[in-house]
Amino acid sequence: MFNFTALPPLSLYIHVPWCVRKCPYCDFNSHQSPDQLPEKAYIDALIQDLEQEVPYIWGRTVQSIFIGGGTPSLFSAEAYDRLFSAIRALLPLSPNIEITLEANPGTFEAQRFADYFDLGINRLSIGVQSFNDQSLTALGRIHDSKQAIKAIETAHKVGFENFNIDLMFGLPHQTEQSARHDVATAIDLEPSHISYYQLTLEPNTLFHKQPPTLPDEDPIIDWQIANQQHLANAGYQQYEVSAYAKDNQQCRHNLNYWQFGDYIGIGAGAHGKISDAAQQSITRRSKQKQPQRYIDTAGSTDVILTNEIISQKDVGFEFMLNALRLVDGFPTPLFYQHAGIPISHIDKALQQAEEQGLLQRDIHHIRPTEKGLCYLNTLVELFLPE
Known about the structure:
This protein is α/β, with parallel strands linked by helices. It is 38% helix and 24% strand. The protein folds into 2 domains: 246 residues, Alpha-Beta Horseshoe (pyruvate-formate lyase- activating enzyme); 75 residues, Arc Repressor Mutant, subunit A (Orthogonal Bundle), CATH 1.10.10. Helix 1 packs across helix 10 and helix 2 runs parallel beside helix 3.
């Protein structure tokens, strides 16, 4: 039996499933956009979907909103204005709410960025991936380095003080020089946050079926260490496996994920996780993945693709799968608060992790060691239910 004395913070995730073109490395629920985006129909569906979710989180305040994709910057400011009006009518929002929108440099327009800012969107996540045109072509991106720099400069100009640049390393035919140039260029553009992670060949992607030529693993690790030091010297502190931020500029929405908070998920393929104090349960739900199927079923129970109640046996693993990604780990009491069970349920795994030098703990705090972060999969697997 779970025992929630207080419910975790609540966020809202909104998924926009269309892109101009599907990138060969992408395993997210994204689809090539039709000639005419069904913008109105999709916003209608999102509102219906949210209305159906409201009873599960009635009265709870939303701390952050993240609009991901796909390429959410394909949608007009007018569409988001209508969506936000409905959100504000249905949900209490925190006065200092963080609202993030993912944007692709190949779809940006200066006026559209300005309009997003005027709507109350106060954070952008710009999918640059590289500032090297050869790398961008190899990744199937629709923008070049000049467009990426222009998009970031425009974000600054229209008033965004808080934005993220996405960068990848270990790219096809990438050299140490180009990897260092990517990070140096990003730093020079003065974002508040940089996501820096290695390209992985995920199942069900074109790159997995037709693998590109990638650099050897050993030099990639050396590049990563050197660039992490460059980021630290420039004031970007690593707070998660692939996330680096200026002081107090961590992504609050993602922190809520990693700290096993709750979130509503609306949109095609969106996932949600909700704790229920009355039922003493944690439920994960996902929505129909195909955009048209999602539009057709929104507002009915058919829009729900999966609905799973997390068992006490699994909750320890699910919590640690997220929380151990954080460089500083988590306060020990947070486990009971957000997982709803005493930490003694995972004491055996904690002891094993400590003995293997993967984790440090005391009565106040639990954190992965440097070795634990390097061997994160090994660390997390210790918490799998027997």
